[in-house]
């Protein structure tokens, strides 16, 4: 019974860490990454569709992303979607493809992105703490129903805390690595 609760708790916490990694991949670092445009949706015949589903998105150099739509009539829709996404650059449309030129980041921009990263990490920690609370509540219910002893309940809550501490430490190390990546010039 308790092992199932531990496994479920670890699984849920791992999902929070995976979500944090996905969020971090959208943050800009020294060189551009196609993940910056992952959340952009293009109106594709009335359906919001991911940018990488309507064209080829590639990094051509450290500061440029090139988007080649599979259908030329989508160029204006893609351009509009990028402008609405407000990712910090204006699209350059040359009739065949769209290029996004990202200027070198200033130290202020880097500090601002670090703040965003810390905020994302804090949200992940809050999610971890909520999962810990759920795990502890399940253990307390088992104790209340007399399915486990008071000592087992205490040991179970201690184990949940160990799992929580391990996952919070992992979030901290991911944040530290991302922070170093963002601040590296």
Walk me through what this model shows.
By secondary structure, this protein is an alpha+beta fold. It has two domains: 2-26 and 106-183, Topoisomerase I, Chain A, domain 4 (Orthogonal Bundle), CATH 1.10.132.20; 34-101, Gyrase A, domain 2. The protein is built from four helices and six strands. The longest helix has 38 residues, at 107-144.
Overview in brief:
With 185 residues, the protein is α+β, with helices and mostly antiparallel strands. It contains 4 helices and 6 strands.
Number of helices: 4
SSE order, one letter for each helix or strand: HEEEEHEEHH
Strand percent estimate: 15-25%
The biggest beta sheet reads: 4 strands, antiparallel
Principal-axis shape: elongated
Query: Any idea what the CATH superfamily of the largest domain is called?
Result: Ribosome-recycling factor
The appropriate CATH architecture of the largest domain is Orthogonal Bundle
Q: Largest sheet, order of strands side by side? A: 3-4-6-5
The number of domains: 2
Total strand count, please?
6
Q: What oligomeric state best describes the polypeptide chains here?
A: single chain
Averaged pLDDT = 91
Structural category is alpha+beta
At the fold tier of CATH, the topology name of the largest domain is Topoisomerase I, Chain A, domain 4
């Amino acid at each position: 019974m308790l092992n199932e609760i531990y496994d479920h708790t670890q699984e849920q916490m791992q999902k929070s860490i995976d979500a944090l990694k996905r969020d971090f991949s959208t943050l800009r670092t020294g060189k551009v990454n196609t993940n910056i445009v992952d959340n952009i949706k293009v109106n594709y015949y009335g359906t919001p569709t991911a940018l990488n589903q309507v064209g080829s998105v590639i990094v051509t150099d450290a500061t440029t992303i090139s988007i080649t739509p599979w259908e030329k009539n989508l160029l204006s829709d893609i351009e509009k979607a990028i402008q609405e996404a407000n990712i910090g650059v204006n699209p350059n449309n040359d009739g065949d493809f769209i290029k996004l030129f990202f200027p070198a980041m200033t130290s202020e921009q880097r500090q601002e992105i670090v703040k965003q990263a810390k905020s994302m990490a804090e949200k992940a920690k809050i999610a971890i703490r909520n999962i810990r609370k759920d795990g502890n509540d399940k253990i307390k219910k088992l104790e209340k129903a007399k399915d486990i002893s008071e000592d087992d309940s205490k040991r179970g809550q201690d184990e949940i805390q160990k799992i929580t501490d391990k996952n919070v430490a992992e979030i901290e190390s991911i944040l530290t690595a991302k922070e170093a990546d963002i601040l590296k010039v």
